[in-house]
# Entry
Amino acid sequence: MRALDKLPQKPPVRRICADFHGEASVEVDMLEVQIGIHRAARNKSERDAALMEIALLSLKKHVEAFSAMTGEKYPDYRLLAEWLESGADTVNGEPSRNLAENPTTAHEVPMVAHDQDSRVASE
# Structure
């Protein structure tokens, strides 16, 4: 048993793999270009990892916001998916709080337009 205690501990690893076809594939490529992943990643594996990292961060914030709106700690996948797809500010027909009003998801991020003359910054 002592020999096992001396073995180095391996960090947990979770591999996610998905294939996108057709329009979904084009949308993924467009998102990668839009957020500049191609500038940060040196190869396909790094690109996929960067995309998954940002996607999971976004999903985590949306799950927290949805949970705060519905009061459910563990929201149902289908209800969450419907809410995300609808883009509506309602859950089950009731008005929901804006994502920016949720203290767990609200972060001030300055936004700069491509045009030098028009700049928008959150205060």
